[in-house]
Amino acid sequence: MPGDSGFQVPGNYPTFVNAIGNDVVYAVTSEHTVEMPVFKGAMTRAINATTGAEIWTLSSYVTEFTTTSFAVADGYATWFNSYDNSIYSVGRGGSALTVQAPQASIELGRSLVITGSIKDLSAGTMQDEQAVRFPNGVPLASDDSMTDWMGYVYQQKPLPTNFKGVEVTIDVIDSNGNYRNIGNAMTDATGMYNLQWTPDIEGKYTVIATFHGTNGYWPSYSETAFAVDAAAPTAAPTEAPPQSTADMYFVPAIAGLFVLIIIVLVLVLLVLRKRP
Questions:
Q1: Which domains does the chain have, with CATH numbers?
Q2: How far apart are the first and last CA of the chain?
Q3: Rounded mean pLDDT of 211-232?
């Protein structure tokens, strides 16, 4: 029957404000009496208290008519989600950034590729299910991708097709002690980033990769180093030795004389053969 789908309910399910903290309003979908099958559209929402803009949403049914199972402290919201019988703690997570550069030196004028990755250090990523599904760690998602990505990581939702990673800033300290930015790179759905760059002076470089953080993750950074050697000198073209007067005139003349003598001898032999 249509009424047994879990989508149609006897009336509108109300939204309750369950907590307010750090200028964020936390609202949940709930009802006095939970009917079976459980309503499938319940959400927990974080809303900017000043602008009213929605910060994030999460598929969640609190299944209570008061605020007894919802707590906010130190920027984290904690509650019981009846959809999967789990306790949720939602807030800014830690991040771990790595960076690598070629260990062997390169010649000046050649380019190199700086690579690395960034992973989510939130406690939830260390659960058995997430550890098996993401053996190399859970990649970081941008704030725009957070809702769909968290649903995929923790709630068996489909893999989002519009995943967007985070930006990593790459700076160097060159051999002259100058600190400068050489570019930015975006991470992909595996958490990897890369940047191709051509050094402009010789010597040792220190590389500093920095993730400046988002609303969902705390910042992190990492360092490495590489070296640039002087380019190999270009070999000068070899010049042919100048020809002497003898090489230019006498030798060709002698060679021509020998050829003339050979031709005369051949003619003499032909004439002698024709005489009776």
A1: 2-90 (2.40.10), 95-229 (2.60.40.10)
A2: 132
A3: 95
Tokens of 74: 């130190």
Backbone angles phi, psi at 257, to 5 degrees: -65, -45
SS (H, E, C) the chain: CHHHCCCCCCCCCCEEEEEEECCEEEEEECCCCCCCCCCCCCEEEEEECCCCCEEEEEECCCCCCCCCCEEEECCEEEEEECCCCEEEEECCECEEECCECCCCCEECCCCEEEEEEEEECCHHHHCHHHHHHCCCCCECCCHHHHHHHHHHHHCCCCCCCCCCCCEEEEEEECCCCCEEEEEEEECCCCCEEEEEECCCCCEEEEEEEEECCCCCECCEEEEEEEEEECCCCCCCCCCCCCCCHHHHHHHHHHHHHHHHHHHHHHHHHHHHHHCC
pLDDT tens profile 90-109: 999 999 999 999 998 899 99
